[in-house]
């Protein structure tokens, strides 16, 4: 299993499934830390049943700080996207292929609004529940068997959700197989046309299928163009050759970086920058490029990115020898340890 990072694509993937989504302010930064690899979806009911149930899911309750799930599903079928980071929802339990008593770092929690003691589940809410689970599982490449009820997982006597999971999963399996929207042949061509000033001639025929079987790409003399139906709302994105060398080092779209999510930025005379699903690549001309991501990336961003006091990254993240991670920048180092604290040390005046 490799690190896949937070599901920053949640809102886009749900919308691509035709679902109604409310993105709560700050959801991309909300959570108890970064996800490791994503292995499935856990279904819950809120045991409240009213329009304010989401407040507890987002803010927590005495003794248990929020977020308590990534998603809340309202009774009218609307999804509230609460958090992209880890949430406290699973508790102790087990499921084949998931780490025992440790699902919160690997599983997306959905809280369906229902009182759990006899309130009906509206058809529109159940339809959205199944389609949302299918969309997430298809996105992370996991089968319907990784759609698990809290009551199935829990060794603590949880009883939610109060509907039958077997028939629910059968329908989720059918929805996963129905597949994503068909690729539009012209998206890569359209992006290549936008990039015609620099991308050069096409060197691969037509559109090639990416390793996930869903995305497409094409190579050009001076870069490549990637497309995935759930990324950038289905627009293709060009990556220049200078950044492609670094992207290749991290396994292209099947590595933790995933697909490009923005067109690249040129810092004239200095280097190139481009955002991907799992991090952002920075490469100065004449130097190796490196990704910045996760908790360290958030701290670096807060310091002003490459224009802040730390400057450009000059290493990848590495094991700091005490159970945490560190990353070197031109003017210093950021460290992360499991307490979640990021410290800046060794600020140097020499420019490396
Ligand atoms: Zn639950």
Explained architecture:
- The chain has 352 residues and is an alpha+beta fold.
- The chain folds into three domains: 10-178, Lysozyme-like, CATH 3.40.80.10; 181-268, no CATH class; 293-352.
- The chain contains eight helices and 20 strands.
- The protein has helices spanning 10-16, 53-59, 123-140, 150-153, 165-178, 186-194, 241-249, 294-302; strands spanning 21-23, 40-45, 60-61, 64-65, 71-73, 79-81, 107-112, 147-149, 208-209, 216-220, 223-227, 237-240, 265-267, 271-276, 279-284, 289-292, 318-319, 325-329, 332-336, 342-345.
- The strands form five sheets. Strands 1-6-5-7-2-8 form a six-stranded mixed beta sheet, sandwiched between helices.
- Helix 1 (10-16) packs across helix 3 (123-140) and helix 3 crosses helix 5.
- The radius of gyration is 21 Å and the shape is globular.
- The mean pLDDT is 91.
- Zinc ion is lined by residues 44, 150, 158, 160.
């Amino acid at each position: 299993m490799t690190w896949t990072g937070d599901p920053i694509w949640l809102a886009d993937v749900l919308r691509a499934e035709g679902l109604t989504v409310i993105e709560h302010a700050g959801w991309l930064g909300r959570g108890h830390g970064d996800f490791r690899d994503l292995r499935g979806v856990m279904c819950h009911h809120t045991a409240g049943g009213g329009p304010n149930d989401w407040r507890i899911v987002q803010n927590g309750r005495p003794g248990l700080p929020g977020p308590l799930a990534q998603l809340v599903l309202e009774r009218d079928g609307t999804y509230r996207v609460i958090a992209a980071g880890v949430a406290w929802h699973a508790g102790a339990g087990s499921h084949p292929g998931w780490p025992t008593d440790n699902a919160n770092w690997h599983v997306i929690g959905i809280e369906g609004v229902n009182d759990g003691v006899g309130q009906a589940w509206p058809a529109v809410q159940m339809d959205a529940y199944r389609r949302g689970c299918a969309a997430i599982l298809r996105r992370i490449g996991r089968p319907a068997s990784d759609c698990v009820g809290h009551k199935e997982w829990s060794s603590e006597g949880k009883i939610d959700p109060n509907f039958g999971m077997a028939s629910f999963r059968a329908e989720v399996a059918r929805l996963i197989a129905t597949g994503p929207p068909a690729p539009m042949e012209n998206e890569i061509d359209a992006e290549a046309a936008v990039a015609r000033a620099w991308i050069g001639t096409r060197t691969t025929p037509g559109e090639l299928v990416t390793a996930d079987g869903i995305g497409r790409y094409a190579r050009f003399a001076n870069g490549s163009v990637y497309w995935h139906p759930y990324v950038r709302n289905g627009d293709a994105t060009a990556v220049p050759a200078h950044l492609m060398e670094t992207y290749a080092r991290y396994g292209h779209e099947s590595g933790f970086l995933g697909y490009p999510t923005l067109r690249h930025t040129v810092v004239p005379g200095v280097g190139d920058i481009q955002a991907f699903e799992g991090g952002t690549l920075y490469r100065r001309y004449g130097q190796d490029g490196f990704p910045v991501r996760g908790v360290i990336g958030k701290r670096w961003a807060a310091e002003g990115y490459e224009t802040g006091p730390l400057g450009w990254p000059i290493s990848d993240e590495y094991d700091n020898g005490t159970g945490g991670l560190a990353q070197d920048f031109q003017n210093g180092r950021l460290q992360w340890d499991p307490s979640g604290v990021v410290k800046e040390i060794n600020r140097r005046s020499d420019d490396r």
